[in-house]
Amino acid sequence: MGALALVVLGAALRPGGRPSPALIRRIETAARLFAAGRAPRILVTGGAPAGGPATEAEAMRRALAARGVPEGAILVEDRARDTLENARFSIPILRAAGVSRVVLVTDRVHMPRALALFRLLGMPAAAAPCEAPGGRRGAIYRAKEAAALPLHAARAVAIRLRHGRP
């Protein structure tokens, strides 16, 4: 078995580049897993919202460092705009760092899509889900994920057929 890393998928930023509650859940989960020795590296992935001052990845990097994760243990992917790009742009960075398998950190509802995309693009992945909101907001989130999974999976297969592994 090769080297392992946690991969924290981005989520919305608040004004001024502050992490949203969803992103804070992911950051805190990753920091706990890192402190427990689950993996020696963390890759944070997420680009800048339209017109935003910072990338999701940079906000996560700062927040993880503030929670005691050494800067040298954090890898950064700062171009991704969606879950497919999280996988597509992260995998080459992970491979260059000698990582051959990952544990994904994202909301439980988002996890099936994230796992499918990383695996379809050739990166073995396990799950470390965070809890997402319930109620009406949770129902909307689940509906969005149900619609996005087949579309992103088809795009990932097309990328793999056209280009091989990222």
TrEMBL record:
Question: Coiled-coil ranges per the record?
Answer: none
GO CC, sorted alphabetically, is: plasma membrane
Pfam families for this protein: DUF218 (PF02698)
Superkingdom is Bacteria
InterPro entries (alphabetical): Cell_Envelope_Assoc, DUF218, Rossmann-like_a/b/a_fold
Which part of the chain is the DUF218 domain? 5-140
What protein name is recorded for this chain? DUF218 domain-containing protein
What does UniProt list as this organism's lineage? Bacteria, Pseudomonadati, Pseudomonadota, Alphaproteobacteria, Rhodobacterales
